[in-house]
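Input for the complex:
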Amino acid sequence: MADIVLDKVSKSFPDGTVAVQDVDLEIADGEFVILVGPSGCGKSTTLNMIAGLEDISSGELRIGGQRVNDKAPRDRDIAMVFQSYALYPNMTVRENMAFPLRLAKLDKATIDQKVDEAAKVLELTSLLDRKPANLSGGQRQRVAMGRAIVRQPKAFLMDEPLSNLDAKLRVQMRTVVSRLQKKLGTTTVYVTHDQTEAMTLGDRVVIMRGGAIQQVGPPQELYDHPRNLFVAGFIGSPSMNFLHAAVEDGKLRTALGDVPIGDRIRRELEGADAPRELILGIRPEHFEDAELIDDEARARGMEFTAPADIVESMGSDKYVYFTVEGQRASAAELEELAADAGADFSGGGGNLVTRLSAESPVQEGEDRRVWFNLEKIHLFDPSNGRNLTLHEGRSAGTLGD
Amino acid sequence: MSRRAPLSENKKAERKLGWLLCAPAALVMVLVTAYPIIYSVWLSLQRFDLRFPDQREFIGLENYVTVLSNEFWWTAFGVTMLITVVTVAVELVLGMGLALVMHRTLVGRGIVRTAALIPYGIVTVVAAFSWRYAWTPGTGYLANLFDGSAPLTERASSLAIIMLAEIWKTTPFMALLLMAGLALVPEDLLKAASTDGATAWQRFTKVMLPVMKPAILVALLFRTLDAFRVFDNIFVLTNGGNETSSVSMLAYNNLIRGLNLGIGSTMSVLIFITVAIIAFVFVKLFGTAAPGSDDGERR
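Predicted:
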């Protein structure tokens, strides 16, 4: 077991493309860190560099305090789990799991004992003599995990290990991975493109975009205090709503009405080069049916009326989609997020996703009065994506002073 | 029961369509392969020498007794076996090396592959002549390297040169088949093996080779069958002199030069049977998946 330190690690390919740029990251001993981001953000390349499967172009990588830049994967004492599971098709489950131990030249009795132990933890005992071809996807995934844990390596590296499983099994395996990591206490770096996995699994989440780290922090912190537009849009499902906001007369003119701003934000916006156009971000759960709001809460937010297009009742709450007039919010980050989602980004103005209480009597097609919490809204500078509501790493809405 | 009737009707129609679609190909196969095979089997059962057409008669297996008790046949058989085993073994090793190079080359991949395939693209007879000239004392550059000796006049050196020409010619083909096998090895598997602690050699022997096994067996099968029928190189290089004839050369000499259709056909049938046995051994004993069938999952 060991800590992993990436010190200004970069990766560029011979054709000049830069896959990873100046990544600084310190992963503590026993920590579970998630690298997440859209495809092509450099997360897998970063993981492969830690594993030694890709050369590091510049910077330094230390595992357990030791520089390992030039060490072969086999000398780094790390175990990796692949999305494709990468099980050896010619070997049985037992042989697959024993493979790293056999290469390490352990004696047969020790190997058998370790394999049996790992098989027990992962409930693979009855499958030990089968070939991978005769296993289900979930079983193969467990064998891949088993092959990683038998060795008790310094660190686990996992490259989208659950992405090939169906949705239900994925949720189930998520808890297995989480429990296993806690039990073994082994430093783990886990790559995924799925923000739900990132939020639920890790001690800390690293959000990457275009080869650079956007923000590092515990899941809740990233959710509540996103440093920029990209992080705000990437984390959360359904994603944050983004609206165009114009700065006029010390207020923000938006499709939801004029939003008041506090002293601190006002000061930021007073500079000569301050942006006149902003992007307002509100998460779906920070809306509520105005009927259900008590007076105290009413004072902390503001209200608007809009027609409800679609009502999706989830049982515990209702997703209500509203149409609002006004300009679409536009920024490079939003386009990138939309491209990654493979669809038009729902937060681009026009459509508003809200999560209201199940008690709300809202009907499809009717005009509804909706409240939203001013303390929870974010303001972004569209030119660089910076979150203007963030003060000393905390976000306190537009009213903060 | 009544519910099954339409299903089987459906199946019947499907089967019929299958036969119909296969029919043209099957017919051509019958005309160009089955007929000559049956005809040569028929000829092999007769005394039939075109120099003495009057003596033609049905003699049963007498030709087989004649051939199988003839020392020239067994010498040629031994030579053929030797060439087959040595060339295929060497080609496998060299071909694997070449395949790895072609598979791994990142820069100039096209040029490397084209260059490697040139020997295979040259007509065998042309290549064989250039080998012959190269080894001709006085004028050949290779013969001159060895003090103007005449290696094609001695048995051992002749065989060595025949095998060298064969290997030079068909290694690219082997490499091509093996490269297709290499493409079957998932990159992740090799990455997993390196993080599991395998050296490059261990990755090759413990991961690549087992995964490639079906492709290797197919390549070996193809090349063995091919090598057993070796003819062109021997024909040009030694013309079978100094006991360097292969069984194909022997059959040719009896059939075309000797005009002995009975004995020549017998030899052809024996070659056919040997080739069939080799194929049987590969497919049944080693479990080579016949090309086109499912992958080599059955073990």
